[in-house]
Amino acid sequence: MSFLSEEEVASFRSSGQFDEEWYVEQYPDVKLVGMDPARHFLWVGAKLGRRPSAAAAAAPANDRDGRDAVQADLAPTKRRKRHVRTTIQKIQAASETRSALKVLTPELRSKIYESGFFDEQYYENAHGDMISDRNDLLADYIRASKSDPGRDPGPLFSTRYYLDTHEDVRNIHPFVHYVQYGMHEGRAAFSPEKVNAFLEGAGDVELDSLLDIVPRGRPINVLYWGEGNFFFADVAQYLEQLLTEQGYQVTVRTDLSESAHDVLNIVVAPHEFCALGPGRHWTADQYADAVYVNTEQWQTSWFALSLKYLRRTHRGVLDLNPSSAQGLVKLGMRTAFLPLLPLPGSCFDFSEKQPLSRHVTWHKFVEPLCYPDRLEERPYDVLCCGVLNDRRAKGLAAMAPVLARHRCFIHVPRFNRPIKPGEPDVLSAEDFAQIARNSKIMLNIHQGESHYIEWQRAFLVGMMQGVIVVSEPCYPNRYVQPGVHYVETSLERMGSVITELLTTKAGKKKMAEIHANIMDLRDRIRRGERFL
Amino acid sequence: MIVQDTETLFDHGSSWSDVCVVVPLYNYEKYIRQTLLSLVAQDLAEVSLVVVDDCSKDNSPVVVEDWLKSHMDRFGKAMLVRNVKNAGLSITRNTGISIAQSRYLFFLDADNLIYPRCLSRHLEAVQRNAGAQGAYSLLEIFDADRGIMGTEVFHRGRFKHGNHIDAMALIRRDFLLKMEGYHNIQFGWEDFDLWLRMCEAGEFLVQIPEILGRYRVHQQSMLRTTTNVGKNHIALRENITSLHPWLQLD
User: Fold this and answer.
1) Half-sphere exposure of residue A476, counting CA atoms within 13 Å on the CB side?
2) Which of A249, A279, B136, B202 could join A274 via S-S bond, C-beta 3.0 to 4.6 A?
């Protein structure tokens, strides 16, 4: 009851919808309680099904709008009643909003706004008519989403997805849980559908330049966690080479025992270095002064964990994926694309012919790799490499009749168990690239509903090896385009596109064109093009 | 190797080719014609065939005999035999192994299918990988379910997580004889048991990274999976781990 303000009670009293005298006479207990009758009605009377006036009582209690047509003579009464009901609903909603306000302490509010996940404009646009408290949209969201998990606070956090994914989140509002705990625990909070919509809409966003984000004149530490994913060590070394080439003074390190003020730290994969590695002991100033390299896809818990570090930097973020970089800019962060390119001599330069690892040739029947100059002479027609899940399995099964006609290298282990590098079913990037250089077509089937172009796979091991990547539609980016650098098609049509490319004159011509384009791009990179 | 006495229902030709397809048959009159037709379409020129009927209660052997009469020319050697009494899958396959005189045997169940390049690619794989006792490919799952299987390579560590390789494989016959064929394992998993014994002998199959066969999943087996397989599954696991103690199944 204390949540109803004097103004609300007064406004109801003077609305013409409440007959105080009639109400007190009708419900004698109101007098006994000693409460203001209008306040009583709003607090409990309406919930008990009591009427605010004789006129309202004259209308049937359970009428429905649909009956209006056949009971036209009662219409004025009903309209009045509906009006009363709407007013009551509004006031009750306001009262619940106040209960939401109780949860929303000033500390929590500032945490939420700091998180950036509550976007007033988004909320207003998405839920327009349903909003009952426009003065406090956050409270309105917290209140309304309790009974309607379809309401989201912004373009990324999904209330329903969070509830569905984390079964332990029950006695606390999911969004409050995320901001207070989930975000720091690295819990997945963005549904693939929302990520998809968000990044799809980021195609026109202008990116910052790496050269702007990484200022000149200061020595640079490129940091990664020594006990983590070995890929991040490669990224760190690559970044060292790229920056050194651009005239920076760079050292790669896995510790930070003697951090100096004049050194700029670039952290590769903050979800490892800062969350698990030496970065755990950093000060707020150190977090703010570092540049971060995001390596993770948005729908993963790793990304969620990274995000809290990405938000802290005053300098900016580098992202291995162009679409992800655009998304971060859209979230308000200075972000540049860090393109992994086949820099000569770098760990991503697979131009040297190397025999395949022994475990590959031992366990698998492999064609002799002959590295022909001409695309059509490559021994493999189709290469497909990725971790199998149900989506990919069904997609591949659907195109099996086509694949069965061609010489394929299909490496799709179903890793539903922990995997260590060196296991017979793990194909190294080097081996993958050697096979790509001996393949005509490489398939890119998305793992889920997110439409990332998987840069390492599709660009580095794919296009840069001269193989024609046939991919499901990807978010657009300005570096490689469908029809020019690769072929885009739906998963349903992939089989017939393969047939067309491999067996028709027009298809072979298309492959030759794309092959020439990607070889040209590779040559430009060799000559110094860096996408910066 | 335990085999069953048989009677010969059909016998054509005299020259065993390098590859013989061994088809154990039991109550699959509905599917067997389509299965055999997928052999006709093979791009491997010379193929032999042995069908071993395990006393089907339906018309399976008649269907095969009729089919063979009109398609025998495709095979240098083709035989249809019938076990004198029902013997189960392992012994039926062993009977096929003992009858077929080819150097390499390809096991094809009577409800599965193979793509036209299947046998030639298997032969190539096994001829070019001298260390391997046989070869298998990825399989397309079809009919009541859809997917891909056989996606991981043959290695000891992987088998600890269960069997991932179907019996549809090409294997050297002399090796099978040395291994005494398939052992009769209660409730099935005789192929898994063979792979495990191969691991123990330090042998392996090479994986062909192509989709060359089609593995049928029946509506009934889908239903069974969710209902009464549980008890058998526990018994199977206990049985297989007692036979191969190094295998600590997850």
Assistant:
1) 10
2) A279
Q: Secondary structure of chain A: what % helix, strand, coil (to 5)? A: 50, 10, 40
CB pair distance less than 8 Å for A410 and B152 = no
Helix (H) or strand (E) holding B32: helix B32-40
Decide: A183 and A189 in contact? Cβ < 8 Å.
yes
The phi and psi torsions of A197 (rounded to 5 degrees) equal: -65, -40
Contacts of A368 in chain B (CB under 8 A): none
B-chain residues near A412 (CB < 8 A): 138, 148, 151
pLDDT tens sequence across A388-421:
999 999 999 999 999 999 999 999 999 877 777 7
Residue contact A404–B131, C-beta within 8 A: no
User: Minimal Cα–Cα distance from A447 to chain B, Å?
Assistant: 15
Q: Identify the H or E element spanning A112.
A: helix A106-115
Quote the CA–CA distance of B45 and B116 in Å, as a whole number.
Answer: 11
Q: Across residues B54-80, what is the average pLDDT?
A: 97
A459 vs A480: CA distance, rounded Å? 8
- The distance of Cα A77 from the centroid of its chain, to the nearest Å, equals 51
Q: Is the ipTM of this complex over 0.90?
A: yes
Q: How far is B154 from chain A (nearest CA, A)?
A: 7
A203 pLDDT tier (thresholds 50, 70, 90): confident
Tell me whether residues A365 and B152 touch, CB distance under 8 A. Answer: no
Q: B226 CA to chain A: closest CA distance, Å?
A: 18
Is A365's CB within 8 Å of B206's CB?
yes
